[in-house]
Amino acid sequence: MTGHGVSKEISAMTDKLDKIREAQKQRIEKEARPGETYAQTAHRLQVAADKQPPAAKSNMRKPPNGDAQMDFFAPALYDVGTRDSRSIMDVAVFRLSKKERRAGDVIRYDLPDGYVEVKSGPDGMASIWDYDIVLMLVSQLTEAMNAYRANKGEKPGRTFKPHVSDILRFCRKGHGGKQAEEVERALDRLRGTTIKSVREGVTTNGKKSRVVEAEGLIGGYRVVSYTDSGRVAELEIEIPKWLYREIIDGKRPDVLTVHQDYFLIEPGLGRFIYRLARRAAGKNSAKWSYQTIYERSGSTGTFKKFCFMLRKLIETNDLPEYILSEEKGLKGPQLVMIHRDSIEVIDSSGS
């Protein structure tokens, strides 16, 4: 989106917010009782509203007890922006549903220069929640590489040795025994889910070429646990070549910081929309058609059901960093994603 387009989009959202504020002001003035100040009326109405059940269920879960995400060794959360100039944040390389295992399933995304296929093994397709472990690999590898470039550490290898408690803390989950067991199941699904990329093009000598690459979301893994308690004693995860190459070999690797509250987003679609907004909108705004998002999500449901779920996200509008809205497009409804800070900048400059 051009700078003019971004400014126009933010201006339209600001006008919408001004109208909401004016309508709220008029409602408060209308509800005022004799002798009651504006502030007293607003407080009384807010207290009454707080006692009412929420209009829509929040998309965010509460952090676990003792949540100490920010004191973890990786001070920032990162995700990979592209895979060989082909974004994995624009398509779902995982399932968005907790109920459907999708074992042996294939999702295909047709792109202008080829296609991407996501293939799952007998343990089921990796879910967007399983992908939290990949985010941990990206974050750890990025921090280690930043230290290496600053001459403050050694060049990281492809073997990652976290404790299960580190994974659970990083993903902002509780530390129950079942959680530890689920980590192993998640590793099975990540190991068995492969991303096949097919790209057609023209070489420097003018000949047509077809490049095919396929790798898992992680490489191999090794778990050592105590048989009497089932507690995991040692864990090793092999970072896949595509991920290692993206972060280590590139002079300026395309990694994006991600809000820590991403892990608290409950619905899989909510997580996918946040990832899409982070990639497409960044600190400004972007818009995608409902139809395109549906096709890129890998959803097995109907388009009508998908639109219903997307509008629920817009109704609640509590995803980290971004405000969502719907507008009409030439080929159907569009999702508008605007970074909250960009609106606050416009609002403060106009006050």
What does this structure look like?
The protein has 351 residues and is an alpha+beta fold. The protein folds into two domains: 1-11 and 45-60 and 265-351, Arc Repressor Mutant, subunit A (Orthogonal Bundle); 67-264, no CATH class. Helices cover 39% and strands 21% of the residues. It is built from ten helices and twelve strands. A four-stranded antiparallel sheet has the order 2-3-5-6. β2 and β3 (114-119) form a beta hairpin. α1 (3-31) crosses α10 and α3 (132-149) runs parallel beside α6 (241-249). Mean pLDDT is 83; it is low at 69-75 and 345-349.
Tell me the strand percentage band: 15-25%
Number of strands: 12
Instruction: Enumerate the spans where pLDDT stays under 50 for 5 or more consecutive residues.
Output: 69-75, 345-349
Backbone shape: globular
Order of helices and strands: HHEEEHEHHEEEEHEHEHHEEH
The number of helical elements comes to 10
Number of domains: 2
Q: Mean pLDDT score, rounded?
A: 83
Strands side by side in the biggest sheet: 2-3-5-6
Q: In angstroms, what is the radius of gyration?
A: 23 Å
The major pleated sheet works out as: 4 strands, antiparallel
Distance between the termini: 27 Å
The multimeric state of the shown protein is single chain
Question: Helicity range of the residues?
Answer: 25-40%
SSE class: alpha+beta
InterPro entries: Replication_initiator_prot_A
Protein name: Replication initiator protein A
Pfam family, one: RPA
Organism: Methylomonas aurea
